């Protein structure tokens, strides 16, 4: 089947500041020197130039439809009577009768092009022309976002309003994710799918894309993930989908601070206008706290089914003569069930209102999306916000599960999560619902991936872990302890099961951790001086000392271990010689993180004043998590805590042999009170990880210790 090809020629204009510039045009063997003319013309806006753009695209698509009629089995007259062609004829008459595009609603000139995109009897090249046309409309700013809905705006810019722009972008998202066309060959079909990806990416990146609803955003992400994970498609198309997802993730998490601020402002405004009787029994959130609300529709997860039914699922479909080519995900046959295991997250900020009666588990409620032409509740779609970001992060975390996903899918998810942390790590830490995802499933899956034997996957996991703990370590004390213990086990020279490549990558990660300002001090204060934590700083230093000494021949791991030790010594020396004596290098006690106030987000943080450094004094890199120097423990308190910890370890060892002897030893050394306090003893049994669970059970089962049992339970 031959297709009629028509070339659209467009001229490229450029404003020239100086008429003395010249350009060279290569024409065969000769070089023609040209002098550009100073052209003065307005930028493309909602005027005559904007009006000519839809007319030119109408002409191009109408010609393509006529050529398609001449070579198809249907007659020419029959094709001219088709609804698709009639829509363009009517649109042309409407545009010819107006003087500016301001006088036309966006949906009026977008609908004919969108109908071509979703028409099942249109070939791929024609669908590609319609996709390109809509993409141009978005890129050229034809969907101008109104500054206000006042009468002055309507008088100067026409009937365009927030509602009309919102309905237009919602329609583009619905029709773009439901694109259907008659396929010709695999290469041409993938070109059309690539144009679909480009349109969806442009739709989200333009200013008008902020008006897309959470439901439409979810469908866009589903389409991109399906193409990215479909093994039957070419590598180029799948990588293109991955790049589109990268841009979308970067956009979402760069907008996260403004989304959180808007949520807080809307919540405060709603409570200011509410009646006192309605909020009398509810707590009031102070204005300085972040209001993080994930509505009930957040349970509609990003679920990519293993097979895509073209007739039932509103996704991109290519109808060929032999069989439909639908982007599907064969590797994720169990992904949907895994994604539904997490319970629905709601806000848990201090003093925040939680509506328990409206919460439903994702296991009981399936994600059912209404049709695109069906209006639910408010006819104006609400712009996407925190639920869309929550669903995206939740789905990316579910892709990291090593038992349910292939290495290729995990690699893509690691790259996207790295982009999210690079863009919005501070905003994620200030959102309670997103922070719970990080503290739970994200760190769990990352720690499981540390057992991978593939070096490239292991290195990618360490990269994400470093960014995670560098930015949110004050919220991840226990997770950081497990992570560093795993690195110690991998980097230990006594571990013969670890390959040289993995040990080298792990040591490099340890070096980067110690180069973080204040990290060495934080490890000593928050772990080595904590009675119920391991001696991380001491264990890491011993491990580095063993790796720095060459046994047979000098290798790169020895240099890496030596670099880490030098970084520790450099930090100690800098803290001793700096004017502040390193008082701003230590974060608050992470063991009391649940009693601390939430971290101040970066978009509200106070600017750090410039501090002049004297000549000869080492420059100190500022800590990402500074704290008040008055909150730091003194040297005497740290020494006392270290001594108490040694006694507690000895007493725990004796308790594992004889509980009575261990308790007597701790009372003798002043760790436990005499007479025994049931609450203090229950805290000792609950928080001490060195105690044998069997001995704890024997001690609590004794009737003499009923008071301790009651406090323990």
UniProtKB/TrEMBL annotation:
Q: Which Pfam families match?
A: Sec7, Sec7-like_HUS
- Spell out the molecular function terms from Gene Ontology: guanyl-nucleotide exchange factor activity
Gene3D superfamilies, per this entry?
1.10.220.20
What's the protein here called? Answer: G-box binding factor, variant 2
User: SUPFAM superfamilies in the record, alphabetically?
Assistant: ARM repeat, Sec7 domain
Annotated SEC7 domain residues? 637-713
Q: Which organism is it from?
A: Clonorchis sinensis (Chinese liver fluke)
Q: What biological-process terms (Gene Ontology) are attached? A: regulation of ARF protein signal transduction
């Amino acid at each position: 089947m031959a297709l009629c090809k028509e070339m659209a020629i467009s001229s490229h204009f450029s404003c020239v500041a100086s008429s003395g510039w010249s350009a060279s045009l290569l024409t065969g063997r000769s070089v023609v020197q040209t002098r550009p003319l100073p052209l003065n013309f307005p930028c493309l806006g909602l005027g005559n130039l904007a009006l000519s753009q839809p007319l030119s695209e109408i002409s191009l698509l109408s010609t393509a439809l006529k050529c398609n009629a001449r070579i198809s089995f249907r007659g020419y007259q029959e094709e001219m009577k088709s609804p698709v062609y009639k829509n363009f004829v009517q649109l042309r008459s409407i545009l010819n009768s107006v003087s500016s595009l301001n006088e036309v609603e966006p949906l009026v000139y977008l609908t004919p092009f969108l109908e071509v995109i979703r028409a099942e009897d249109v070939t791929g090249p024609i669908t590609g022309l319609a996709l390109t046309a809509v993409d141009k409309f978005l890129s050229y700013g034809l969907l101008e976002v109104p500054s206000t809905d006042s009468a002055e705006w309507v008088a100067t810019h026409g009937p365009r309003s927030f509602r009309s722009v919102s309905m237009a972008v919602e329609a583009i998202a619905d029709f773009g994710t439901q694109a259907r066309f008659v396929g010709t060959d695999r290469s041409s079909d993938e070109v059309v799918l690539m144009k679909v990806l480009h349109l969806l990416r442009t739709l989200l990146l333009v200013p008008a894309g902020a008006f897309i609803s959470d439901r439409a955003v979810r469908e866009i992400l589903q389409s991109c993930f399906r193409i990215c994970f479909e093994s039957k498609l070419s590598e180029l198309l799948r990588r293109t989908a991955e790049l589109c997802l990268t841009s979308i993730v970067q956009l979402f998490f760069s907008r996260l601070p403004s989304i959180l601020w808007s949520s807080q402002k809307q919540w405060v405004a709603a409570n200011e206008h509410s009646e006192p009787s309605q909020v009398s029994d509810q707590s009031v959130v102070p204005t300085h706290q972040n209001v993080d609300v994930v509505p009930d529709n957040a349970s509609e997860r990003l679920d990519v089914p293993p097979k895509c039914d073209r007739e039932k699922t509103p996704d991109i479909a290519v109808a060929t003569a032999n069989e439909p080519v639908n982007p599907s995900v064969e590797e994720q046959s169990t992904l949907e069930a895994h994604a539904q295991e997490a319970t629905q997250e709601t806000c848990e900020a201090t003093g925040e209102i939680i509506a328990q009666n409206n919460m439903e588990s994702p296991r009981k409620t399936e994600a059912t999306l209404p049709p695109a032409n069906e209006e639910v509740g408010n006819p104006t779609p609400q712009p996407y916000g925190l639920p869309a970001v929550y669903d995206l992060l939740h789905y990316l975390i579910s892709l990291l599960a090593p038992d349910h996903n292939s290495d290729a899918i995990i690699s893509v998810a690691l790259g996207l999560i790295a982009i999210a942390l690079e863009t919005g790590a501070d905003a994620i830490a200030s959102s309670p619902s997103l922070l719970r995802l990080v503290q739970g499933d994200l760190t769990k899956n990352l720690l499981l991936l540390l057992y991978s034997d593939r070096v490239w996957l292991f290195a990618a996991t360490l990269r994400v872990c470093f960014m995670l703990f560098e930015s949110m370590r004050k919220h991840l004390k226990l997770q950081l302890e497990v992570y560093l213990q795993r690195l110690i086990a991998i980097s230990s020279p006594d571990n013969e099961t670890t390959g040289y490549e993995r040990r080298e990558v792990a040591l490099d990660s340890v070096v980067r951790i110690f180069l973080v300002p204040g990290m060495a001090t934080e490890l000593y204060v928050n772990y080595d001086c904590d009675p119920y934590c391991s001696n991380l700083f001491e264990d890491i230093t011993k491990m580095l000392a063993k790796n720095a000494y060459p046994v047979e021949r000098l290798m790169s791991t020895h240099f890496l271990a030596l670099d880490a030790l030098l970084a520790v010594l450099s930090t100690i020396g800098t803290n001793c010689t700096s004017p502040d004596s390193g008082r701003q290098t230590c974060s608050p006690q992470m063991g009391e993180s649940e009693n601390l106030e939430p971290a101040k987000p970066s978009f509200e943080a106070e600017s750090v004043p410039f501090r002049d450094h004297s000549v000869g004094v080492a420059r100190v890199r500022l800590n990402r998590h500074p704290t008040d120097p008055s909150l730091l423990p003194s040297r005497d308190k740290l020494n006392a805590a270290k001594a108490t910890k040694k006694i507690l370890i000895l007493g725990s060892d004796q308790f594992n042999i004889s509980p009575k002897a261990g308790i007597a030893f701790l009372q003798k050394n002043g760790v436990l009170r005499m007479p025994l306090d049931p609450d203090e003893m229950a805290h000792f049994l609950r928080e001490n990880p060195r105690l044998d669970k069997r001995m704890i059970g024997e001690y609590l089962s004794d009737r003499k210790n009923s008071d301790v049992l009651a406090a323990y339970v």
